Amino acid sequence: MITRTITAQIKNDLLDYRKIILVYGPRQVGKTTLIKAVLSGLPLKKLEINADQLKYIDVLSSRDLTKMEELIADNELIFIDEAQNIPDIGINLKIMRDSLPNLKIIATGSSSFDLANQVQEPLTGRTITYRLYPIAIQELRQQLSHFELKDRLEHYLLYGMYPEVLGLKDSKAKIRHLRELASSYLYKDVLKLSNIRNSDKIAKLLKLLAFQAGSLVSLHELGKSLEMSHETVNNYIDLLEKGFIVFRLSGYSRNLRKEITKMNKVYFYDNGIRNVLIDNFNSLEWRQDAGALWENFLISERIKKLAYSSQYANTYFWRTYTGVELDYVEESAGQLHGYEFKWKSDKAKTPPTWLEAYPDASFQLINKDNFMDFVG
Questions:
Q1: pTM (two decimals)
Q2: For residue range 281-295, what is the model confidence (pLDDT) as tens digits?
Q3: What domains appear along the chain, each with residue ranges and CATH number?
Q4: C-alpha to C-alpha distances, 31 to 38, 125, 187, 278, nearest whole angstrom
């Protein structure tokens, strides 16, 4: 059992505040397991609800306090799993919170955009929100030494960080699970909750994005390839972001004439998902995209670290029209930090253009020797 970083924080918030705890994240990352770990040992009478079951959906979408009180009975805490399946969940949670102020409420959702849309307005000021991602390197550090983590890096870059994948010993079993995950869950919430009928377009778009991970993405070129408008492509990518499949970085700039800002880069939250989409699990020594895999891995792990430690930073890449670039840029507390990622090399020079444009900014090379300081 891997202890998730936010377990203690959620438990403390649950006990200290009279707010609804919301936990978002993709399917199969362990949200239910996390909440059960939070609830274990709590001296509270609990009601655990699977929102896939109709008998609960009818009551929790009713807006009828009498029905909800009948369901809750004398329980002191209610846990609603996959809450996005309940129509009007936001207003019903509001009714419970306002009418039963001593009741502790925790809910999970695998579709942040749907659950957020339902709860954002009615629950303003009434929630504490967390995101749960695939397993983070900082969580593995509890069980594995620096040497062991470094030794397993290639496996993480190839097969990703989903809990079940990490628990499987055989590479074929890992690939089989990733294929099942992609085919059964990857598009499920996006298609179900966005009324997109053409799943082939989503699948083709994801494959194109997987091949371009870490590269500048042209919505116009993607639109031409998929025979759709660039506005539609942008909307689809937005849905994939809200479904916790991909995320975008925009270009950093204080000088619009020299620096690229209109195009984004797209990354995957999990390398295993990225690799299963392009059906490539070859060893890194035989791949031309090892650098892209390393970059995707580091940035996704950095996103987890920032989220779990409640560090607030604006994240970018940096590139000039002449081709000079930095893989990753962070802006936090008034400071600017630039990073270059190298899978094999232990040397990198600070780009003169970066120093000239931002003389007070820092620069650092991240490679296999020092990556733990960046993501751990």
A1: 0.92
A2: 999 999 999 999 999
A3: 7-131 (3.40.50.300), 137-202+238-375 (no CATH)
A4: 11, 23, 18, 27
